[in-house]
Amino acid sequence: MTQLLVFGEREDAEEVAETLGEWFPGLGVPRVVRETLAGEDDAEDAQWVVAVEGLDPEALAKVDELVERYGGWREAG
Predict the structure, then answer these.
(1) Helix (H, G, I), strand (E, B), or coil: what is residue 3?
(2) Is 44 exposed, middle or buried (0-12, 13-18, 19+ CB in 10 A)?
(3) What pTM was estimated for this model as a whole?
(4) Is residue 36 left, alpha or beta, with left meaning phi > 0 and alpha meaning psi from -120 to 50?
(5) Distance (Å) of CA 14 to CA 11, 28, 41
(6) Average pLDDT over the chain, rounded to an integer
(7) What residues have CB less than 8 Å from 72, skipping those under 6 apart?
(8) CA 22, chain centre distance (Å)
């Protein structure tokens, strides 16, 4: 299942993506994309998303801790 890691700042998303690439080399470095929320007129309100797949529950717990440190959250995609 795809997990979406959502951040307000691009730098945070990029650092998390790089860290995940180091922790889970089989993933490669996940891509960071800008996600504009439905109905948002102001591009400044867009979120930065890192999408990852194939993580087991133990790995997800570790990812949740990392995401929380950067002020983000995880959603199932």
Answers:
(1) strand
(2) exposed
(3) 0.85
(4) beta
(5) 5, 13, 24
(6) 89
(7) 5, 6, 7, 8, 12, 13, 16
(8) 14
CA 9 remoteness from chain centre: 11
DSSP state of 31: P
Q: How many helices (H) and strands (E) does the chain have?
A: 2, 4
Q: Which two tokens stand for residue 33?
A: 């994309």
Residue 67 CA to its chain's centroid (Å): 7
How confident is the model over 6-51, as pLDDT tens digits?
999 999 999 999 999 999 999 888 999 998 765 555 556 689 999 9
Query: Tokens 């890192």 belong to which residue?
Result: 50
List the structure tokens of 1.
């299942």
Please, are residues 51 and 77 in contact by the beta-carbon 8 Å criterion? yes
Asked if residues 32 and 14 have their Cβ atoms less than 8 Å apart, the reply is: yes
